[in-house]
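#lab-general

N.A. 3:47 PM
ok so I finally got the sequence cleaned up, no stray characters, all 282 residues accounted for. can someone with queue access submit it? mine expired

B.Y. 3:52 PM
send it over

N.A. 3:53 PM
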Amino acid sequence: MTACPTLDDLRDRLTLALAEDLGEAGDVTTNAVFPAEHRSHARIVAKADGIMAGGPIVEAVFGLHDPDVKVERLIEDAKKVKPGDLAIRLEGTTRSLLSGERLALNFLQRLSGVATLTAAFVEASGGRVAVCDTRKTTPLWRDLEKYAVACGGGTNHRFGLFDMVMLKDTHADGAGGLAEALRRVEPLRPGLKVAAEARDMKEVHAALAAKVDLLMLDNMSDEALGEAVALIAGQVPIEITGGVNLQTIGRLAEFGVERVSIGALTHSAVALDFSMRIDLGS
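B.Y. 4:20 PM
back already:
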């Protein structure tokens, strides 16, 4: 599974995120109510069925905000949770617990939502295809959201524009055809793998002639998909892209392709509900 970003990976982003919430004055309400020495325990509890993702990020938030806060993760990422499950236990000053609460929960809820939606797609596919993410991620959260996809049983696609050649319709149209676009990117091999979208059989033939590493069948009808898959016949891995949803993925998986890519995994995931409950000490 893709590794979770570490505190060192996240330090700059978490520093900015904490500053956004705390400003220069800090949590003025909590600081007025609770003395600096007041300590409490806290529990982060699941309030919905889903897949856990982001526990290490909660730990990183408090590790940066106040290293003296103790964080105990009781449910590991990629595991199922249900309402009432105790996911994380914390102990520290009440000020630190309350002022870090929202940022920690924002990460946990968002990433668990991505993992949960991914798991739903994996289940709907019957496990017959790799469920792949896209670049349709929250800016500066891509490594986190791709980690969450992996927690849900999905597969990470290219990370950015730099680590794979991927020819889409605009590239093909701009070059005067997919065959010419493929010719222009050939010098980038063998350092980079080449993927190409194909909208019709002419483009499928062009991609096969160029020996692409991944052939992506884009928004094709079932009839066209069947024809394309029969022609490709194991020559190159096939990915279906465009318009895949929970209602169609099972049917599409029956075509015998290796992969589907789904932007919705990250751009349409609903946050999974967690709450942090403070057990006030003294």
